[in-house]
Amino acid sequence: MNSTLLLNIARFLLLLAAQILIFNEMDFYGYINPYPYILFILLYPVNGNKFGLLLASFFLGIVMDMFCDSGGVHAAACVVLAYVRPTFFKFSFGVSYEYQTVRINDKLTPERFSFLLISVLTHHIILFSLEIFKFSFILNILLRTLLSSVFTLILCIVTIYIFKPSSKR
Amino acid sequence: MQQIVNFIFKNSNKLLFLLLLGISLVLTIQSHSYHRSKVVTSANFISGGVYEQIHSAQEYLNLRTQNEQLAKENAILKKMLYNAKDSTAIVVKDSLKGYKGMNTIIAKVIKNSYNVKENYLTLNAGAKAGIKPDMGVVNSLGIVGIVEHTSNNYATVISILNIKSEINARIKKSNHFGTLRWDGKNTGFVQLIDVPRLANVRKGDTIVTGNESVTFPPNVNIGVIDKVYTDKETNYFTLNIRLFNDMTNLGHVYVIENYERKEIEAIEAKTEAENE
């Protein structure tokens, strides 16, 4: 239990640092900004404390907002993602997901891919609609959501593969 | 009472979610609504310090362009100096028009943003260096933005590439003025709206800052007219302006302090109050 807590704290800090130092500098054609820091929310233990997840996601988002000067958009998107995460688990892994040991950071299966996809899309659409906050830019919002989601998804999968726990061999 | 406690225990997750969502939505809406309403900004020692470290590493990558820019600016200043009527004469204060006191504070952009609709920059100088909110920020090529928040050592600037930014600007040739806005589409172009139809505008004309601004000194370069079209709703001209500045590559900037700002604003506020 203690080691999972430490692992999550390390993940929180590392993903945040990577996002600010590397991924925020990425900007292709002004449309594609990947946000793989949400991996923290996705990789949080399935049966972990939901209260803790909500609070941690909020702080993750608010720190991002501080660095991006964006008000509270990251915080809102992260909190929503953290709240709907169990629903997405149910959608992707079936109703009895809590009794199976669902592991996200493992080999990519259709279930895991669908979970990542739906989570990234949800987060990005909330993020970009709140960030732009104008109905006249609706096409822009959709385009940015789509393109950035593809990139975030690729980066998430690559990150999972790189840091795959070696104990299960 | 028991039931209320039970209810809170049962729905604690939902309640916490709603509370946190509420806080973040309030912060979001506040940041979108009006100037200097943001609570969480990057002008603090944590994010400012991190950005300063990142910047000190990245600085070396564009030293060449920064040097060229400075050399060009020096050349222009030297030209002005050598072509003055008498370069050794002391500049006399114009006692008739009054002396307009302007001070420039040097700062470096440690975080630049241009890929969202509301872009902010972070500078490595703050209240300790004398920077206050609402001061203008320029560099050798043209205007950059207006200071929004300051902390002791850092300041955030609302970039001209921000759909909330509104700056008074005029056409250099004809003195007709309008409002400088950004439509959120291209980082190389801004729009000058509400220019009267009487104005004689042509592609290639220079746009500079207006005379009545207390934020910027008059006649600071902004850009050249790239396209002229008529706004169908208001029947005024809208001009598409190509910026002199490359907003995606900013180094040293000057923050402009107007010593007479308080006096001008006080007297304007007084006049407005009396006329109501």
CATH topology of chain A: Arp2/3 complex 21 kDa subunit ARPC3
Strand content of chain B: 25-35%
User: Main sheet of chain B?
Assistant: 6 strands, antiparallel, barrel
Q: Averaged pLDDT of chain B, please?
A: 86
Query: What is the alpha-carbon Rg of chain B in Å?
Result: 23 Å
Number of separate helices of chain A: 6
- Output the helix-strand order of chain A: HHHHHH
Q: Termini distance of chain A?
A: 22 Å
Number of strands of chain B: 12
Query: What is the count of DSSP helices of chain B, taking H or I runs of 4+ residues?
Result: 5
Which tags fit this structure?
heterodimer, A: 169 residues, mainly alpha, Arp2/3 complex 21 kDa subunit ARPC3, 0% strand, B: 276 residues, alpha+beta, six-stranded antiparallel β-barrel, 29% helix, 29% strand
Description:
The complex is a heterodimer of chains A (169) and B (276). Chain A has 169 residues and is an all-alpha fold. Helix content of chain A is 67%, strand content 0%. Chain A has helices at 2-21, 39-43, 50-68, 73-93, 110-132, 138-162. In chain A, helix 3 (50-68) packs across helix 4, helix 4 (73-93) runs antiparallel to helix 5 and helix 5 crosses helix 6. Chain B has 5 helices and 12 strands. Chain B has helices at residues 2-10, 12-33, 45-58, 63-82, 261-275; strands spanning 102-111, 118-123, 136-138, 143-150, 155-162, 167-171, 177-181, 189-195, 206-209, 221-230, 237-243, 252-258. In chain B, the strands form 2 sheets. Chain B has a 6-stranded antiparallel barrel. In chain B, a hairpin with a 6-residue loop joins strand 10 and strand 11. The longest helix of chain B has 22 residues, at 12-33. The model of chain B has no long low-confidence stretch (mean pLDDT 86). Chain B is an alpha+beta fold and 276 residues long. The interface between A and B is large, with 34 and 38 residues.
